[in-house]
Amino acid sequence: MVDLAHFIGIPxxxxxxxxxxIDCAGLVMEFYRRDMGVxxxxxxxxxxxxxxxxxxxxENGMASGRWEAVETxxxxxxxxxxxxxxxxxxxxxxxxxxxxxxxEGKDSCIERLDDWRSRLVRVxxxxx
Length: 128
Prior knowledge:
The chain has 3 helices and 8 strands. By secondary structure, the chain is of the alpha+beta class. The strands form 2 sheets. The chain has a 6-stranded antiparallel β-sheet with strand order 3-8-4-5-6-7. The protein has a two-stranded antiparallel sheet with strand order 1-2. Strand 6 and strand 7 form a beta hairpin.
């Protein structure tokens, strides 16, 4: 299990994929790589995807076939949130009602899912 402290405080950077800056999709991809040894496909959102395309991917289970929508989140599940009126934000459920994410205007952090529940669109589980 990865040390979550590694992910806390990384500055938000659109299309960021590392310790110098990371966006929501990059954080999910890095969490899966470090914690689960899974290299998620870049189409998790990708670098040059519009908000409309991101919304479509989220609504359609991230278009991978390896994702399953579930009702109750478990550690490592991807949470899809509505931002700007569309499902364009993702985070990782880490247990005990908390999730990890990187959102514009903040460094990466852990927040309570209850505080974001009204924006939650879907919970997706990667079928390993």
